[in-house]
Amino acid sequence: MAIQYFAKVTASDHEVFQRTVKHYPASSYSDWHIREAARMAEWRARRHTIKMVAITPKEFADHCAKTGKPSDIITFKAFLIDKAGF
Description:
The protein is an alpha+beta fold. It has helices at 11-20, 29-45, 57-67, 73-83; strands at 3-8, 49-54.
């Protein structure tokens, strides 16, 4: 069974990510949360496991500084998987 990783962020952290992560969704926190919930439901319907990964702007910024990777959505999603311990 496949695992899908989703970011678990607060509303205030969502706003920070919008400013600091290139191509991070520009929608409001509530709209983003609704869309993410719909995406999770789709993956569950396909019998995938959902894993929520708590992440803060500081953790992500530190990761980018340490690895030299850009602060963009690709690095953000890869960091979720790395942080989940995969």
